[in-house]
Amino acid sequence: MQEELWEDNNPAIKYSSGQWARTYNSMYRGSTLMRTTKLGDSMSVKFRGSSIKFIGVEGWDHGTFRVNFDGEETVVDGHCCGQNGEVPQVMQFEAHGLSTEEHVLNVTNLAAGPWGSKLEVDKLIIAPHSAGREPIPVFGMYLLVGAVILLLGVFLSRRYRAKKLKAAYQMLPVRDDAPPTY
Description:
Blueprint: E1 4-7, E2 13-15, E3 21-24, E4 32-36, E5 42-47, E6 51-59, E7 64-69, E8 72-77, E9 86-96, E10 103-111, E11 119-127, H1 138-168
Antiparallel strand pairs: 1-11, 2-5, 3-4, 4-11, 5-10, 6-9, 6-11, 7-8, 7-10
Keywords: Membrane, Transmembrane, Transmembrane helix
Transmembrane segments: 136-156
């Protein structure tokens, strides 16, 4: 199944009341993202899926943030680059192989880096669970049937040629004491 793209403004994503603000720039997915510089500000989302990816920004004025996923915590450093440097659309957290239960992702702005405490949320990418084996698309089915027919044709052609050659060029034993025939 295809991954679902949840932009920063998806209603399922909840932002704490703090200093979150929408920022516009063409280098962000969908040209927007949510940004805060206030320590303690957080975003959370509940979802069902087999995996989730949190996409944000790393930059010179970013700090660290805490990711709490289903009760397990990790700290991520969003600081990078030289002064005024920034790397958009960075996968900053990923969880995969998830159960079919509901999951909760919570991201909290934790501590300032050397030059700032910025935290930016660009998007989430969620892969739904597949409902068993997925059907083969029609084009794929035609390709599969064509390949089977081609292989069967090659096999039968070789078999027919082998029988024909065997019948046409059958070797007979030669006796040593027989006179040569011309």
